[in-house]
Fold:
Amino acid sequence: MSLINVTNLTFAHEGSYDNIFENVSFPIDTDWKLGFTGRNGRGKTSFLNLLLGKYEYSGNISAHVSFEYFPFHVEKKQANTIEVINDIFPDYIHWKLMRELSLLMVTEDVLYRSFDSLSNGEQTKVLLAALFIKDNSFLLIDEPTNHLDMTARKLVSDYLKTKSGYILVSHDRSFLDNCVDHILSINKTNIEIQKGNFSAWWENKMRQDNFELAENEKLRRDINRLSGSAKRTGSWSHEVEKTKNGTRNSGSKVDKGYIGHKAAKMMKRSKSIEQRQLSAIDEKSKLKECE
Structure:
């Protein structure tokens, strides 16, 4: 076991003024099986590329493991499958490869067929087997179920369940539920990790979303109430201002000095109340923007 430490990670694509990640910090245990979730366009692929060292960023990503990406890019698809595996991992040990292929129910004869003659499912399994025999590697597995039927999905999910040390991107909820023990989720500008499978994370997310909706509605009511109070206080301030000239009760004589002194105190108080109300409105509006 070792840790991948992400510290104060800030990243934006070149030419963009908006950060995808801003001062993001969290650790990843290399024994974890992490499901990676987030809305499309939120930065899942960008984060994987940051781990692979493809982009410049501010902050720090430290790791004592190498990162391997799935699916591996195969340049010589006409070559025999065993040659493709050798390109991925030149120092592989044959019996270890056979062990992994057996777990994935792939027969040895596929090694001596051209890679492009294999079905999409066979290609997926072969590449997974090749990557999992690499020592001291942390795998970044991107949508492995794209070309798998339901039977193959269950087989690969059961296979991954026996492994550790990977981040798995998939839109298949049941696939994730079966084989991950942590969820890595991208929010607006940060990344959070939660222990458990996808369903547990989703339930917590729904609970949090409902809480925020209720808080948002409460803030709206508070803002409307404070706005009404601020308007009434502003009207009161205007009326107080009029008393300085002794004009509030037309036709009567008043002590302008006394009235002026009292009016000034009332004016100060009303302005103070109005300012507090406006500040409260501003503060609650900022809270709404943070949702």
Summary: The mean pLDDT is 81. The two ends are 36 Å apart (CA to CA). The first strand starts at residue 3 and ends at 11. Residues 198-243 form the longest helix (46 residues).
